[in-house]
């Protein structure tokens, strides 16, 4: 159990408090944005949709698969749960408008943990000025969090995975490999390593997606875009197959990411290239833009699109054994 939140006589469990008291305690911590016409308290929320179309995405986080309570505080889990969904909205070139959350939890979960989870959700949603507008809660043998995020396209077409064309440039916004390095540190469980590389360990617990880059790239005319939740090679592979093109990445353009991980990789006996190319959960955005596009701040060119078989290659770099996350492997 999360060492920061233990049930005590003054901090009851969800069984002791009851579902509706927990829901009331959680929703009291969730302020509503100007986009919300009707927030928590009714059978459903009502949210403005200025564009007339709604972008929808959902993700599920399962304790022991996507997070561990002995590694992450409830606040960190809440931030991570919100971030991976808000990043998906940004990857469509949209701006987030609201979030709904489902929580399944054991009966002995402290109410304070659920409250801290709500604080994390609120904190991450505040980064993009949206709010949690509702959700559901039920009993389960482990903590499971389902988040659905809604977004608005602001009159633009969605940016999909299938629009890349030969001659385009491959671009990335955000950091690569940090979460994978942090995961390796937590799995090793060495307190000294975790302290020496605290920033990388924290990057696994709480990602930092470049939310603004998604709409900015859409306004700049991006031809393809996605969230690198599963790993750069694996996710760009979706673009290659969806667009029917070959993506050639420039190893030199990724050297800064590799150098940032080199010291940690050396201590762990790992290859930093494997983290940069195959590590997920940084929630960087990757995609393609026509050559000559004025790139938004924080966006860098990492390769090019050419005609050929649909694949992603990095000349001069050995392909890692794993090119990304697969929930069933």
TrEMBL record:
Record: residues binding ATP: 135-136, 161, 229
Annotated catalysed reactions: thiamine phosphate + ATP = thiamine diphosphate + ADP
Additional note from the record: Reaction mechanism of ThiL seems to utilize a direct, inline transfer of the gamma-phosphate of ATP to TMP rather than a phosphorylated enzyme intermediate.
Function: Catalyzes the ATP-dependent phosphorylation of thiamine-monophosphate (TMP) to form thiamine-pyrophosphate (TPP), the active form of vitamin B1.
EC code(s) of this entry: 2.7.4.16
Protein name, UniProt field: Thiamine-monophosphate kinase
Residues binding Mg(2+) 3, per UniProt: 43, 88, 227
UniProt GO MF annotations: ATP binding; magnesium ion binding; thiamine-phosphate kinase activity
4Fe-4S as UniProt keyword: no
Protein residues bound to Mg(2+) 2: 59, 88
Cytoplasm among keywords: no
Pathway where this protein functions: Cofactor biosynthesis; thiamine diphosphate biosynthesis; thiamine diphosphate from thiamine phosphate: step 1/1
Chain segments annotated as coiled-coil in the UniProt record: none
BP term (GO), one: thiamine biosynthetic process
InterPro entries membership: PurM-like_C_sf, PurM-like_N, PurM-like_N_sf, ThiL-like
Organism of provenance: Motilibacter rhizosphaerae
Binding site for Mg(2+) 5: 230
